[in-house]
Amino acid sequence: SIAAHDLAAVKAVRVLGATLHGDHVGSEALVDGLRHAGWDPQGARVVAFGSDDDVRSLLSALAAAGVREVTLVASDGPEAERGMPRLAAGVTTRALSRRDPAVTPLVATCDLVLRGGDGSPLDLAALGPHLTVVDLVPDLAQGTRAAAHAAGATTVGWADVEAHRVAARVQALLAIDVDPTPLHDHFLQRS
To answer: What pLDDT score was predicted for residue 182?
Structure first.
């Protein structure tokens, strides 16, 4: 698929006749899950920590869904620039080092924070009821999630995210509807 090619990563492979078709699926399911939970991507501002293919794929899906501003934060500026995916026209992008002083004010005014694999800590003073915080990997500092929740932010744990990702991948492979609930229960036990 175009998404798998752009990200240089495949998450599901299907046999179509005599050929294999690789795709990077799951991000659209996460966007749909956020919508279902009441979060509207239209015009939103997103700050993402980490530059792995799952973060980049989700940023692409969010941009396609109407996000207007994306900031990618990585261990340094060049890594953030390399990690920024090609996004829909009209989306403002920013690639920053996690040490950049602009990160905290951006978190304080954004609508969604994606916490990816680099595990960068959030400035707890920037958290508030305006914010949705999504953990894209397991084992991130639970204190940050608890502080976000205490500040009135909406939080989405890794088990929810992974259940929707896996359900979307199985659905893509088998062309059947997959309920993420049993998967969520399984991943919740692991986290």
So the answer is: 77
CA distance 87 to 68: 10
Cα dihedral sign for 54, 57, 63, 64? negative
Q: Give the number of other Cβ atoms within 10 Å of residue 119's Cβ.
A: 14
CA-based angle 6:138:97, to the nearest 5?
Answer: 55
**Overall pTM surpassing 0.85 (yes/no):** no
Helix/strand/coil (H, E, C) string of the chain?
A: CHHHHHHCCCCEEEEECCEEEEECCCHHHHHHHHHHCCCCCCCCEEEEECCCHHHHHHHHHHHHCCCCEEEEEECCHHHHHHHCCCCCCCCEEEEEECCCCCHHHHHHHCCEEEECCCCCCCCHHHCCCCCEEEECCCCCCHHHHHHHHHCCCEEECHHHHHHHHHHHHHHHHHCCCCCCHHHHHHHHHHC
Q: What is the pLDDT of residues 102-155, one digit of tens each?
A: 999 999 999 999 888 766 677 888 888 888 888 877 765 667 778 888 888 888
How wide is the angle at C-alpha 87 spanned by C-alphas 38 and 141, nearest 5°?
A: 55
